[in-house]
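If your schedule permits, I should be very grateful for your opinion on a structural question. I would ask you to consider whether the tokens describe a fold that such a sequence might reasonably adopt. Thank you for your consideration; the sequence and its tokens are set out here.
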Amino acid sequence: METWDLDYPDGHSETWTKDPGTGAFRLAQYNGLGPTQDQYSTPETAELVGARLCREANATVLYPGMFRYSPLTGAPLPEPTRAHQESWLPPFGGGQTPDFMGMPGLRQTHVDLALPKTLRSQQDPSVSLPLPPPGDYHFLVGNLSSCRPSLLAIEPRRGLLYIFRDPQQQWVELRAKHQLLPESSLKTGHWGLACPDPGKQAFFLPTDYGLAALDLDILDFTYDLRLYPGRCVGPPVCFQGKNVFVPITLGEDKGGLLRIDTANPSRVEQLDLPRESLAEPFTTALVDRRQVIWLSRLGQLILKFADITGKPTMSFLPWPAGFQPCFQFGSPYRARDGVLWQLGFDQQQGRYLYMTLASAQPERQETASPRFGSGTINFALETQLRSHPWLDPENVADPGSRHIVAPLLESPNKSAFCVRIPWNQGAESLFNSNAKHAAEFALIMQDADVSFFMRKLTHPWRMRAFVYHRHLYLYHPDFDQSIPGWELLSC
């Protein structure tokens, strides 16, 4: 066999083997991935790696994308698949992607959401995906060092990873090359992942046995991992693509923040914290250009990069006496001036209020009732608020309203993916209900409200959305048939 090592102008490399007898080329590695498994058809392989595909001698054959003419016939070869990027990082499709203008940690995605105004909840979805094996999944979309986006299903509680194969409409489990991915007991609302670049194959998952640095090989259906010891008690964060931070505990008396240099993963630092500050799990972290804030029922873990050296400082700020944060109502509110406010209940006054985050002397604003929010979009019962959530709206929904509307996701074009739940009791009591609710799901856009899906579910606010191949898909752990999807309009 002849071996051909090829380097491309975009920086990626390929290794091909050539059979001197037949002249057939076979891909041995692409960008460090591979070799491709026999489960992949020749057209699939061409699409994944940008190879040239043609018919010769009554067979479909592959040639490196660099080749412009057939080595056998000299005829011009068809153009290869052009790489296109697509990403969705769970839980909300935002994350540390370059085009993301929102705040990681809020319920904000970088994808514009728009659906046809003619959609109705009684209609069937336009497409569907088969469900992965039984479990409770989060979904990731990324190129993972290939030329086309792939869809991954992640089951944190059992440490399982599946990749979706479009032509076969089936899920394939990724196998561990060495160590198995440990499980994570972090619940929804506390689980998340860090991904320095969704176009690459590496990302970081929290587990009960440490932070797992995963390296996927989608051509070989395998993964490798490096485990940084400790019990993860919150989601990891990739700060400006340079460092990954995650809160961990070590035994019964130690804990803090683990810091990993993404350029040199062997360079690890632990920033110590009192063990008692880590006794409760942290929610999805809030990230801006200068700080990261993890929230728990005990207080705020704040990581700041204030000086010009970029050296971080860390502190734990307990909640004021009597303040109980209400994470169940959604994300903190981000005002137009960038200040973050957390909804909570003042046990001393017996009232709901909003309080500024990352401040030793926080401002407070009382509110007549709790609001459901996704970051910048808030609802009081069925009324969308146009100003600060603690201000009463001018046009209030009927106080006797028998529905609650909660925004689950907001997009750059000001659309809000919401759930509408029939309920005529206090909003707080809704979260204690294990009954099934006939929930309606809608996309509230600037010029239309489109109710497009209805299903009877327990805890319907646990619905998860993701975008794959320009379709909006919905997943809920109660689903037992398929994952419904709707084609998005171009904005």
